[in-house]
Amino acid sequence: MSLRVYVIAYLIFLYAPIALLPVFAFNDGTIIAFPLSGFTTQWFTELTQNAALHAAVRNSLVIAACTAVFATILGLCAARAGAMSDFRGKKGITGFIMLPLVLPEIIVAVSLLVVLRQVLGLSLGNWTIIMAHVLICTPFSIAILNGAFAALDPAMEEAALDLGESRWSAFRLVTLPLVMPGIVSSMLIAFTISLDEFIIAFFLTGANPTMPVYIWGLLRFPSSLPVIMALGTILVALSILLLTIAEIFRRRGVRRAGGTDTGGFL
Amino acid sequence: MARRTSLSPDQTRSITLLGVPFAYALLLLAVPLGAIILFSFWTQDFMTVDTTFTTANYREIWDSPIYGLLLQRSLMVSGIVTAVTVVLAYPVAYFISFHVKPSRKSLWLFLITIPFWTSYLIRVFLWKVILGYNGVINSGLLELGVITEPLTFILYNVNAVIITLAHAFAPFAILPIFVVLEKIDRSLLEASQDLGESKFSTFLRITLPLSMPGVVGAVLIVFIPTIGDYVTPELMGGAGGKLIANMIQTQFLQLNNAPLGAALAVVAMLCVTAISLIFVFLNRKYLRGRS
Questions:
Q1: How far apart are the C-alpha atoms of B224 and B209, rounded to whole Å?
Q2: Is residue B125 situated within a structural domain?
Q3: Per the CB < 8 Å rule, is A199 touching B229?
Q4: Predicted structure pTM score
Q5: Given an 8 Å threshold on Cβ–Cβ distance, is B28 in contact with A31?
Q6: Which residue in B17, B20, B118 is closest to A235 by CB distance?
Q7: Start-end of H helices in chain A
Q8: What is the membrane topology noted in the UniProt record heading this document (chain A) (predicted)?
Q9: DSSP assigned state of B228
């Protein structure tokens, strides 16, 4: 019983910051503090008129979409290989690919910055952020797709091969549809991570800031804070929606492949 | 070297497939990491990089007290954040694994991961709103008459950084512990209680030791990345709460001294790796015998 009380208190701690977002997004006051003044939708109206923000959001959406596709392709390769025969060094190689999961993001950021700017002398742009985001999102994609492939019965693809399908068409016609929910889930997770990533984007961003980089700039100006609260409210609602879809697909994938559901995203 | 036996077609396919993400990681992770180590032995004067090999950057880090201080503070903050996060997370993981119906477990995990996926910057900023001078905690406590003037020790210092980071990394700590708890054979617990152990001593002697691999995993997955965070100390730390990542960022983006920043990054990584290895070594008896 006391454990239940503790867990509920913990959830309140977990959700406290997010719960405050809509409170201040609709608060008719420029200072983000109590007491509240009144109800307004003014901050949401201001959001729709901010051209610089729109450009940043568009930028982030492009980056996130590209990241989602590439990270999932790489994740698919690794997860597929993971479900196949072992060879010497497989564990080490997989471990290395998963390394960005625990590596401090600033290390990834500065090392890529050094190579791109100082060694290769390239100018930064969206593609540099995409490259880095694919690197850090791939481990998450692998983790999700591993789940999808692990729940898969290899006999199904073998049956297709025995019945005369080529290796590629067996994969495309049998395996791919079965892991498709995992693919969708992986793309959504990678999209969400990329959309929200700041530490790396701040180092590698070119002339056009991403949305988090733009928000970071706004945080210095107290007058723009209510607008950020409004933006945050929309973002939270959006990511909850995306994650719910991702979770539904992940579960459907596990069920479709005939496995039992054992866990969440990681 | 053992002689390589010829590969089966399935193994060859497996290698080719894994080769794609491996090549990517090699190109975008191994090469840059190598480059940054190399770079840390060079020097930079405004825009021109001098490629003569020198340990000047490392000597400067050793000699100037500021770097040592920041590094020490960073390791301390990461250590405390890790301890707080893991200790607070364990009961939650335990609750989900042992007290939640199997059909509802993924719903609970989902509930716990949601806050983690929402805008990091805004989440950190909101802690400022909660802990600030006119913040939720202060105005609440004033209203209740618990305090007569706002508390100031909870914002713009190391405490604020610790609270915010402990919040940010909560799911990272819960999930690895949960996964290991799930694997524990429940009949062992029954056996222990049948043999006369109390619930509590069963936990201490069976559940806790068996879940240690998850705890070690949680510690590493929280401790290592927290070193690299500069957002939280920048927003929450005030003047006395800056950490090594802030210094690395400043060297790279403001002071234009990338080699010194690279050397700082290398030193920070070495410290974190060394501490992690020591930690794993100390817990080796729990990790042994598991694949």
A1: 23
A2: yes
A3: yes
A4: 0.85
A5: no
A6: B118
A7: 2-25, 42-49, 51-82, 90-98, 105-113, 126-150, 154-162, 167-170, 176-196, 199-204, 211-218, 225-256
A8: Multi-pass membrane protein
A9: T
Closest by CA position to B126, among listed B98, B163, B101, B77 = B163
Contact A216 B121 (CB under 8 A): yes
Please report residues of B whose CB lies closer than 8 A to that of A80.
17
Q: Looking at residue B2, what is its pLDDT?
A: 46
Are the C-beta atoms of residues B219 and B202 closer than 8 Å to each other? no
Cα–Cα distance between B33 and B4 in angstroms, integer? 30
Class of residue B160 by CB neighbours under 10 A (exposed 0-12, middle 13-18, buried 19+): buried
Give the structural domain span for B164: 18-287
SS3 A168: helix
Q: Tell me, what's the pLDDT at B46?
A: 67
**Total count of domains within chain B:** 1
Annotated domain spans of chain A: 59-256
Nearest CA in chain B to A108: B29
pLDDT tens digits, one per residue of B155-200: 888 888 888 999 988 888 998 899 889 888 888 888 888 888 888 8
Is the interface score ipTM higher than 0.90? no
B135 domain-assigned = yes
Helix (H, G, I), strand (E, B) or coil at B101: coil
Q: Does A119 touch chain B (CB under 8 A)?
A: yes
Domain A59-256 falls under CATH 1.10.3720.10: yes
- B102: domain CATH number is 1.10.3720.10
If contacts are CB pairs under 8 Å, which of residues 183-212 in chain A contact chain B?
192-193, 196, 198-199, 203, 212
Task: Establish if A89 touches chain B: CB-CB under 8 angstroms.
Answer: no
Kindly give the interhelix angle for B258-282 and B31-39, rounded to the nearest 10 degrees.
120
Q: B143: which residues sit within 8 A by CB, 6+ positions away?
A: none
